[in-house]
Specification:
2 domains, binds uridine-diphosphate-N-acetylglucosamine, UDP-n-acetylglucosamine1-carboxyvinyl-transferase, Chain, about 425 residues, alpha/beta, five-stranded mixed beta sheet, four-stranded mixed beta sheet, 14 helices
Length: about 425
């Protein structure tokens, strides 16, 4: 078990470079097995979710070579077999192997994925999509066998614009016969990044980033080189830290357009920041105004930044509201924030925050990845020492968080307990 200890109240200044996007990389790695040759992916973040995906690739017999941030995957030696539950439950994104393996080998055998407990997280839309393409789904307890004699393009309407279902159906349809149309597709930048990767291999995917994606099936996919886009959620988390503790904190190697909803909210509450071509420089101000946020699919306010943003709202004058519309269980950070001094009440899916309130260091828990990030934000701001346990969640998604924050002046250590 690991613990993060933070001595709060220090100013953050200098530069933090953003890593490759977790939610892109965790789809690109499984997508690589659709190829017939070796692919190379650059800007892969060094996080434990990627280690788990490498474990699955090794289990299947793929040849992988990794350097600092580059991963080369040669799937030609894969022996399609069941992916054991111990590995698939380590992360949510293991479900992308279902679409990719089905797309390539027409039969996938694996277990229900893991990931943060932020809601029920069903995979019915993924499975419906596979069925529409001609697959049969057998579900025994936690195990799924998805099999097709032939995959045929189909028109698929998603009842919810799900990121996972959009990507998974795209993966299964890339080598299917004929044309697939996904309507009400999710539009997140990570989906565009995955579609670009597949197109670089020779796939024909049009419209990624809009709500209608067309996939024209191809027979072969060839080698390519691809880069993971910067992590907009990691960037947003450090930008929020800058708004609370920064003095000219430069968060660089990001795509500002991917952060528009966050930056508009920061402007609204009165945060002082400058946006460059690939960076945001931010300093803390004395007074912030309250605001309301509602999490929505992209380009709306990202649910993954809701928890860190709530910490910022504790420092805004007046009443702010956070309404979570994507996940039903994403307020687990709130009791810990109140134990640090925040004034927050939750009713149904809305948290009402009255601020500003000073925060004081105490012992808290990272109940999930982004709740953990929120705890780090709160601890940096708080007076005194905060001990965060269950930090394995944080390390699943934030590359080198200890080094990145220490380098800009935070007093933060990771301890084995
Ligand atoms: C992805 C992100 C996660 C982010 C979320 C929403 C990854 C690895 N994770 O998760 O960080 O919080 O998008 O931006 O990329 N749903 C169904 N049935 C399905 C699939 C989804 O009902 O088959 C529902 C979910 O319960 C949820 C909503 O749709 O309420 C959105 O989920 P989805 O976009 O699929 O999230 P993930 O892909 O799991």
């Amino acid at each position: 078990m690991k613990q993060i200890i933070i001595e709060g109240g220090n100013t953050l200044s200098g530069e933090i470079k953003i890593s490759g996007a977790k939610n892109s990389a965790v789809a690109l790695v499984p997508a690589s097995i659709l190829c017939d040759e070796e692919v190379t992916i650059d800007n892969i973040p060094n996080i434990s979710d990627i280690d788990a995906l490498k474990e699955i690739l090794k289990h299947l017999g793929a040849k992988i070579k990794s350097t600092d941030s580059t991963l080369s995957i040669d799937p030609s030696s894969i022996n399609n077999k069941e992916i054991p539950e111990e590995i698939s439950k380590k992360l949510r994104a293991s479900y992308y192997f279902m679409g990719a393996i089905l797309g390539k080998y027409k039969k996938a055998m694996m277990y229900f994925p893991g990931g943060c407990s932020i809601g029920a997280r069903p995979i019915d839309l993924h499975l419906k999509g596979f069925e529409a393409l001609g697959a049969k789904v057998i579900n025994e307890g936690n195990k799924y066998i998805v099999e097709a004699e032939e995959l045929k393009g189909a028109n698929i309407y998603l009842d919810i614009a799900s990121v996972g279902a959009t990507i998974n159906i795209m993966l299964a349809a890339v080598r299917a016969k004929g044309r697939t149309i996904i309507d009400n597709a999710a539009k997140e930048p990570e989906i565009v990044n995955v579609a670009t990767f597949l197109n670089n291999m020779g796939a024909k995917i049009r419209g990624a980033g809009t709500s209608t994606i067309k996939i024209y099936g191809v027979e072969h996919l060839h080698k390519c080189f691809h880069e993971v886009i910067p992590d907009r959620i990691e960037a947003g988390t450090y930008i929020i830290m800058g708004a609370l503790c920064g003095d000219n904190l430069k968060v660089s190697n990001l795509i500002p357009e991917h952060l528009e909803s966050l930056l508009s909210k920061l402007e609204e509450i009165g945060v002082d920041f400058e946006v460059g071509a690939d960076f945001v420089t931010i300093s803390r101000s004395e007074k912030y105004k309250s605001t309301n946020i509602k999490t929505l699919v992209y380009p709306g306010f990202p649910t993954d930044l809701q928890q860190p943003f709530t910490v910022l709202l504790t420092q805004c004058k007046g009443k702010s509201k956070v309404t979570e519309t994507i996940w039903e269980n994403r307020f687990m950070h709130i009791p810990y924030l109140t134990s640090m001094g925040a004034d927050i009440v939750i009713k149904n899916q809305t948290a009402t925050i009255i601020g500003p309130t000073p925060l004081k260091g105490t012992e808290v828990v990272a109940t999930d990845l982004r709740a953990g990030a929120a705890m780090v934000v709160a601890a940096l701001l708080a007076s005194g020492k905060t001990k965060i346990t269950n930090v394995e969640h944080i390390l699943r998604g934030y590359e080198n968080i200890i080094e990145k924050l220490s380098n800009v002046g935070a007093k933060i250590v990771l301890k084995e307990i």
